[in-house]
């Protein structure tokens, strides 16, 4: 189609005497350049082909720009700043849950039953912790009944935790507890909810031995006294029927860096108070 257009243009030009006018903006005159018909036809053909090549090249360039522009913009987009970096006071490290249950060998606790004067000494039997995550396991032995009590976490809610940080208002993880000894495995159930905030957590669950048990954070005391000892930031948790305590309603009181400071068994009317302890650093 381009060749026909050129021939038609040349044919029309042959009927006129003409000059190719080329103005120069900086001069007050015009310069006229005379060309033969063959030169003109050759020049038009070459320039038309060049125009087609440039047109196709320009189109390709624009297509490439449109294709890569979104990628370029995505690569140069400012990374989103994590919520906990912007609001550190509203967040917590999920590994802090270990403060209530992870203890080293050499740690022990002595409890006394308030009504009978019976005593129970509990010590660390086995323990391990992954310093890079929330995972840990602590096994305690009770000298009163010979049972082993194990506490552990199975992980976190990954959608709520980033680099071990989570909002305090999020329900990021929980601690599981089991009770047993050779030939007598009593059972296991959840015993602690993190992050502990009064009125935030109510956890309902069931299983082979428990139907719709309710675990709830009732309060968090800034200061709480057991006998003559004062403990800080004590978490008060209630359970409707605890699997490891003969399915009776139970209240537990936990203090960070200390562990269990008080236990109330409501059906059996027992209150076990912490009267002595040693935490190995």
Can you describe what's shown?
The chain is an alpha+beta fold. The protein folds into 2 domains: about 70 residues, no CATH class; about 180 residues. Helix content is about 20%, strand content about 40%. It contains 3 helices and 16 strands. The strands form 3 sheets. It has a 12-stranded antiparallel sheet, with no helix packed on it. It has a two-stranded antiparallel ribbon with strand order 1-2. Strand 9 and strand 10 form a beta hairpin.
Name a few traits of the molecule.
two-stranded antiparallel ribbon, disordered N terminus, alpha+beta, 12-stranded antiparallel β-sheet, 281 residues
Question: How is this structure best summarized?
Answer:
This protein has 281 residues and is an alpha+beta fold. The chain contains three helices and 16 strands. It has two domains: 2-75, no CATH class; 96-278.
């Amino acid at each position: 189609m381009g060749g026909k257009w050129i021939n038609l243009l040349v044919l029309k030009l042959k009927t006129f005497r003409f000059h190719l006018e080329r103005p120069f903006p900086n001069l007050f005159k015009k310069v006229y350049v005379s060309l033969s018909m063959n030169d003109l036809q050759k020049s038009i053909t070459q320039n038309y082909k060049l125009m087609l090549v440039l047109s196709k090249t320009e189109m390709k360039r624009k297509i490439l720009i449109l294709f890569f522009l979104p990628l370029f913009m995505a690569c140069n987009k400012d990374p989103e700043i994590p919520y906990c970096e912007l609001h550190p006071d509203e967040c917590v490290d999920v590994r802090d849950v270990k403060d209530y249950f992870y203890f080293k060998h050499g740690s022990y606790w002595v409890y006394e039953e308030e009504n009978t004067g019976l005593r129970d000494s509990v010590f660390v039997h086995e323990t391990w912790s992954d310093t890079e995550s929330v995972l840990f396991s602590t096994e305690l032995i009770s000298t009163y009944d010979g049972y082993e009590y194990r506490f552990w976490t199975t992980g976190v809610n990954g959608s709520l935790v980033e680099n071990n940080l989570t909002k305090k208002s999020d329900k990021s993880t929980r601690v599981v507890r089991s009770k047993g000894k050779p030939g007598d495995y009593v059972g296991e159930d959840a015993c602690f909810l993190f992050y502990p905030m009064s009125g935030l957590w109510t956890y309902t669950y069931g299983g082979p031995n428990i139907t719709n048990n309710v675990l709830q954070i009732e309060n968090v005391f800034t200061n709480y006294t057991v006998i003559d000892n004062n403990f800080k930031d004590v978490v008060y948790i209630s359970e409707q029927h605890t699997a490891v305590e003969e399915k009776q309603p139970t209240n537990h009181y936990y203090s960070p860096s200390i562990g269990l400071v008080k236990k109330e068994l409501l059906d059996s009317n027992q209150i076990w108070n912490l009267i002595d302890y040693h935490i190995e650093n």
